[in-house]
Amino acid sequence: MRKILKTEFFDRSSVTVAEELLGKFLVRERKIGEKKEREMYKIVETEAYEGLLDRASHASRGQTVRNAPMYGLPGTIYVYFTYGMHFMFNIVCGKKGHPAAVLIRGVESCSGPGRLTKKLGIDKRLNGKMLGKTSGLWVQWVEDRIEVRDKSYEIRKVKILRTPRIGIRYAGPIWSKKLYRFVLQSL
DNA sequence: ACGATGATGAAC
DNA sequence: TTCATCATCGTA
């Protein structure tokens, strides 16, 4: 069983979405010559950036050209360039007009938001587009069963770690301490 | 532990 | 005009 996550999944608090994205699969479909190549990566690390009040968020000082996609529909792709080196990949959450997003920081085979975008070929061309077949980037849920006895299955157990977000000390004592980073620990 | 990278936006 | 940033790599 599998299903592609729709806009309703992302039409919630970025903190909820960040936690629930753990264990889901980021799918990247790219054209390599004539063929379409599809890769799937299990999401294991995320961070939430929630609303205008969140001082760690790009939206904390209002709308700008760069952060405009954060104000779009849930499921919008927000890619920005930072430190003159790296693209960061975020998924917009909540209603249109409410700036919130989840930064995808790591998948099972690749840790670090900059490394991730490099590996998946995510850059500004995707900025502002919706997740889906058209953009060649989406998230899907796959039933994660393990056989425990003959023809008997159960869902794999996981542990979720919550920590403060990375690299945001500038955000002040309240927002820099929020436990908005989620890490999936496989058991 | 630190410098280079060099888009974007805020502070000055 | 200068400075810091939702990193990462190479060099020390």
From TrEMBL:
<dbReference type="GO" id="GO:0003905">
    <property type="term" value="F:alkylbase DNA N-glycosylase activity"/>
</dbReference>
<keyword id="KW-0227">DNA damage</keyword>
<dbReference type="GO" id="GO:0006284">
    <property type="term" value="P:base-excision repair"/>
</dbReference>
<dbReference type="InterPro" id="IPR011034">
    <property type="entry name" value="Formyl_transferase-like_C_sf"/>
</dbReference>
<dbReference type="InterPro" id="IPR036995">
    <property type="entry name" value="MPG_sf"/>
</dbReference>
<protein>
    <recommendedName>
        <fullName>Putative 3-methyladenine DNA glycosylase</fullName>
        <ecNumber>3.2.2.-</ecNumber>
    </recommendedName>
</protein>
<comment type="similarity">
    <text>Belongs to the DNA glycosylase MPG family.</text>
</comment>
<dbReference type="InterPro" id="IPR003180">
    <property type="entry name" value="MPG"/>
</dbReference>
<dbReference type="GO" id="GO:0003677">
    <property type="term" value="F:DNA binding"/>
</dbReference>
<dbReference type="Pfam" id="PF02245">
    <property type="entry name" value="Pur_DNA_glyco"/>
</dbReference>
<keyword id="KW-0234">DNA repair</keyword>
<keyword id="KW-0378">Hydrolase</keyword>
